[in-house]
Amino acid sequence: MTKSLKFQELEYIRFDPCAGDEGEVSCRTIRLVKARKQHPCFLGTAPGEDGHLIQPGDVYRSERALIDGDYWGNYAVCVPCMDKWLTDIGHRPRVQIAI
Ligand SMILES: [Zn+2]
Prior knowledge:
The chain is of the alpha+beta class. It is built from two helices and seven strands, in the order E-H-E-E-E-E-E-H-E. The strands form three sheets. Strands 2-5-6 form a three-stranded antiparallel β-sheet. The termini are close together.
């Protein structure tokens, strides 16, 4: 089964839900991966959001980073959230890529 993404993979990778946060982030590893189990979407956990989940089989953006040299954070963000965000900041869907 193939799924097409609205935006290029690089645009999802560059998407940064933590932009503007204080704190030092290092050792970042960002990948687009297919979920093997449910993950809460990082943006869905924000106050007032619906707390939606990324379902097994869905593609999501996985980010692992060392925060303030102190602890490892894992952030999962679903594609619909990134689509909305990328559209909001003026990105236009381009080529359809099959993954
Ligand atoms: Zn989401």
